[in-house]
Specification:
- This protein is of the alpha/beta class.
- The chain is built from 11 helices and 8 strands.
- The strands form 2 sheets. The protein has a 4-stranded parallel sheet, with helices on both faces. Strands 6-5-7-8 form a 4-stranded parallel sheet, sandwiched between helices.
- Helix 10 links the parallel strand 7 and strand 8.
- The mean pLDDT is about 95.
Length: about 325
């Protein structure tokens, strides 16, 4: 039998909520050409001259509001998930981050040291949907590290799992208990990306955002289309939960800059829904499998404030999959 090890890859986090650590993290994150896809010099000037210096102090306060005694929620949850996956699969499991620590190199060195003669490392990117700024950059970063390191083991990569039945079952299972209490609407809030990323990821060059009902019209582009994939996740979960069309909607959060992003924006929806009669709102964030700044602060804290200020009455954020047992079983099966 092939001697395997597992590597779960997540986004990453600053080492602390101190301004210096947050600034360092932002620079690494935003200098990624798949996140801000500008030529190097204007990207460097934008990130180091404007975004990081001014954004870091504000972001540091946001990180501080969600920090736990154990540390960054995303790092802590990912490590605990790794431990549960190792127990479920009976295979050695590790984690790495796209930005920050532990890096893919640190993870590979630990694997080699602790799992002698390993023949295959299975990379499981903790991103359900394909996007150049999430799944793609994480995979390419790990692949580049593996190639430069001349490691003796093979690297196997798990595809995005946005429509995998076990992922849909696990995600639906986290939502279902919240539907037992009174609610007016369920909002699926996905991480936003610029529309140009959708166009760049289209291998046909003529389908995404160019064909009428492009996300519902069959195309090879769907394999790389974030918009299609989040629509499909939502459709499958709604079907699993027997939701009618008027019980849920989709929005996109975490915008950066003034470019055209996928819409509608979550912040706009939270301001608008109370005027449409939605007083009791549920929000789920399926683009994230581990609770983090974008779910705990942006949605659970800021989102609630926006909704209540607009006339809403109750706001409940549904936690991410985190350490859910069905989710652990889904990972074990997909691996």
């Amino acid at each position: 039998m092939t001697k395997k090890a597992l590597l779960l890859a997540n986004l990453g986090s600053p080492n602390s909520f101190k301004v210096g650590d947050v600034r360092k993290y932002l620079r690494e994150f935003l200098m990624d050409e798949r996140v801000i896809d500008l030529p190097f010099l204007p990207r460097w000037l934008l990130v180091n001259g404007i975004i990081a210096p001014f954004r870091a102090p504000r972001s540091a306060k946001k990180y501080q509001s969600i920090w736990t005694e154990e540390g960054s929620p995303l790092i802590v949850l990912t490590q605990k998930l790794v431990e549960k996956v190792a127990h479920a699969t009976k295979l050695p499991a590790y984690m790495c981050m796209r930005y920050g620590s532990p890096s893919p190199r640190e993870a590979f060195e630990k694997i080699v040291a602790e799992t002698p003669n390993v023949e295959e490392v299975v990379l499981f990117p903790l991103y359900p949907h394909y996007a150049m700024s999430s799944y793609e950059t994480a995979v390419e970063h790990v692949k580049e590290t593996w190639q430069k390191g001349n490691y003796n083991f093979r690297l196997k990569i798990v595809d995005p799992f946005y429509n995998h039945p076990l992922y849909i079952k696990a995600l639906s299972g986290t939502i279902h208990p919240f539907l037992k209490d009174q609610f007016d609407h369920l909002l699926f809030s996905y991480h936003g990306i610029p529309e140009r990323h959708i166009l760049k990821s289209d291998p046909t060059g003529h389908h995404c955002l160019k064909v009428q009902d492009c996300c519902q019209t069959s195309s090879e582009a769907h394999q790389f289309c974030y918009r299609h994939q989040v629509f499909e996740t939502t459709r499958l979960v709604a079907k699993e939960l027997n939701l009618s069309d008027n019980q849920y909607s989709i929005s996109f959060q975490s915008r950066l800059g003034n470019d055209q992003w996928l819409g509608p924006a979550t912040a706009d929806m939270l301001s608008l829904l109370p005027s449409k009669g939605v007083k009791n709102l549920l929000v789920v964030t399926p683009a994230f499998v581990s609770d983090c700044l974008e779910t705990l602060e942006e949605i659970r804290q800021e989102g609630r404030e926006t909704f209540i200020a607009a006339g809403g009455e109750t706001f409940r954020h549904i936690p991410c999959l985190n350490l859910n047992d069905d989710w652990v079983r889904a990972i074990a099966k997909m691996i």
